[in-house]
Amino acid sequence: MKNDANKVQKLKFTGTVKYKSFEGGFYAIDTADGGKYHPMGLSQEHRRDGLIVEVEAQTVPDLLTIQQYGTPIKILSIKVLDDSQISNKDNRM
């Protein structure tokens, strides 16, 4: 029997980029309904804590990260919806 958890899934969602300071620091995208995503290769221009974005992505099955936070995703497209909530958290990455 095949495990559907190992299949690539396409996603479309709106979320907030968040800087997480644990496990060496990284950026995540959290949604209002509790979704937690760990984008692989988030561009420098989108690494701003508090940035609200619309994302089209696909899951990256079988990928484990040291952060162990959310679902790993590969971003296919990303659009800035609101940059008025950006904080001064660590934006060096």
TrEMBL record:
Domain of life per record: Bacteria
Name of the protein described by the UniProt record: Uncharacterized protein
Organism of origin: Bowmanella denitrificans
